[in-house]
Amino acid sequence: MAPGNPEHQLLVEPVARLIDELGRLPGIGPKTASRLAFFLLRADEDQARALAHAIVEVKERVTFCSRCFNITIGDLCSICLDPSRDQGKICVVEVPLDVLAIERTNVYRGLYHVLHGHLNPLEGIYREDLKVDALIARVHSEPIQEIILATNPNTEGEATAFLILKDLAPLGVRITRPARGLPTGGDLEWADPDTLSSALEGRREL
Fold it and tell me: Are strands 146-149 and 110-114 parallel, antiparallel or unpaired?
């Protein structure tokens, strides 16, 4: 709710502020924010403090892997530290949630590279806002044989994949993209494991 909303006059300030903050979260509209706020108001103190502690701990302890930019507590994430992973493959995804989606398939055993977004000039997201240069540096410094461009199968994801393809093409590395089993316009994080598994196994050359 925006400041000055008439409903704020009916609420005590801490509740109105909580609703405002919850409403800033993605996918949370005013009604959902209000329901969550009143749930927390009714919850016992231990439950509310546990939630607050979890939020603070995430901000204080969790960072991004210095190699692939997945989430981690240390310098490198658990996947980059795993010597059993195929060091010659990198799967490029938009956000850390996509890593979780692919890991659920149990078919991919390579490394990852998280871009932290996709190309979208209308929203002010350009190449320099993504981790593209870090990916190119990895291709130069690591024994990479294949790059899988697993950006989302929508307009922004396709544009991002094309941008990376242009940068990587001169480097002579094999570049593939998951097969079209994924629904166009969707996000990897919502794909079921079987569909995503088939898309990865049937990936095509670019």
Answer: unpaired
